[in-house]
Amino acid sequence: MATIVSYSSKETIAPALFSYILDCQKTAIDRHGRFQVALSGGSLPAVLALALLEEDAVTQILWDKWEIFFADERAVPLDHEDSNYGLLKKELLDKLPEGTPQPNVVPINVEYLDDVQELADQYNDALINHFAKRDSILKPTFDLLLLGCGPDGHTCSLFPNHALLRETDAWVAAIEDSPKPPPKRITLTLPVIAHGVKVAFVATGAGKQEILKKIFENPEDGLPCSLVNTALGERVTWFVDHPAVEGVNYPRRSSL
Ligand SMILES: O=C(O)[C@H](O)[C@@H](O)[C@H](O)[C@H](O)COP(=O)(O)O
């Protein structure tokens, strides 16, 4: 069963998220000497920056052991305002203190922006090169996926009732009709997310309340976020603020 932990604000979510990430980092590095992370866009990079850039935090993160992938990405140039890579760079990477060892960040290959299927296939190949060659595995195992939740219950670029929810083969899929703009994107698929060691969602604000009710009270409706909860159970933790989770009928831990 997924865990919900509720805090008063993003500022109080940040230290808790930092401790959680630090634990995941330790487990991963003890296990295989690196920390393989997949990140979403939306509001997540800003909360992540709050969690990781704080003076004490930033020095405990072993940045050069981090390998950062995108849980989903929009088919735009890396310096475009819609780029998730661009967002992460602006919110977090560019703000790392001078001299910080750099993480290995794996963006999309922008040579293929005109062909979203090829863009997805290329990212799939990047994952194969990275994971399969090292670990001889059938699916990439992210040590941690840090995800957001859309107001319709989507996560990554997996939208409610979309055919992509039934994808079983590809690790990375193309989507050309995303209801959230821009329409052309690539996304990790459910089987890859379900293979992750840990998943953390971050959802804040009263605007998320209605959808969190549906996700947690009616998992049988199969919203993408519910599917992740069901697939990973106790490996999923939701970091939320009180307004997002108010009135949701599901056990949770509340903190300041
Ligand atoms: O690139 C994207 O569009 C995101 O990866 C998307 O899945 C996002 O995480 C959710 O829409 C939540 O976004 P917010 O956190 O901004 O609500």
Topology summary:
Layout: E1 3-7, H1 10-32, E2 35-39, H2 44-52, H3 55-60, E3 66-70, E4 72-74, H4 84-91, E5 104-105, H5 116-135, E6 144-148, E7 172-175, E8 185-188, H6 190-194, E9 199-203, H7 209-217, H8 224-232, E10 236-241, H9 242-245, E11 253-254
Parallel strand pairs: 1-10, 1-11, 2-3, 2-6, 3-5, 6-9, 9-10
Antiparallel strand pairs: 4-8, 7-8
Helix pairs in contact: 1-2
The protein binds 6-phosphogluconic acid.
Task: Describe the model.
The chain is an alpha/beta fold. Helix content is 36%, strand content 18%. The chain is built from nine helices and eleven strands. The strands form two sheets. An eight-stranded parallel β-sheet has the order 5-3-2-6-9-10-1-11, with helices on both faces. It has a three-stranded antiparallel β-sheet with strand order 4-8-7. It is globular, with a radius of gyration of 17 Å. The two termini are 23 Å apart.
Notable traits:
9 helices, alpha/beta, 256 residues, Rossmann fold, 3-stranded antiparallel β-sheet, single chain, 8-stranded parallel β-sheet, globular, binds 6-phosphogluconic acid
In one word, what is the shape? Answer: globular
Ligand list:
6-phosphogluconic acid
Helicity range: 25-40%
Spatial arrangement of strands, main beta sheet: 5-3-2-6-9-10-1-11
* CA radius of gyration: 17 Å
Report strand %: 15-25%
Low-confidence stretches: none
Say how many strands there are.
11
Report the sheet with the most strands, covering strand number, pairing sense and barrel closure.
Answer: 8 strands, parallel
Structural class: alpha/beta
From the coordinates shown, what is the CATH architecture?
3-Layer(aba) Sandwich
Count of DSSP H/I helices: 9
Q: Report the order of strands and helices.
A: EHEHHEEHEHEEEHEHHEHE
- Per CATH, the class reads Alpha Beta
The number of domains is 1
- Quote the CATH topology: Rossmann fold
Q: How far apart are the first and last residues' alpha carbons, in Å?
A: 23 Å
Average pLDDT, all residues: 96
Organism: Orbilia brochopaga
Function: Hydrolysis of 6-phosphogluconolactone to 6-phosphogluconate.
Catalytic activity: 6-phospho-D-glucono-1,5-lactone + H2O = 6-phospho-D-gluconate + H(+)
Pfam family, one: Glucosamine_iso
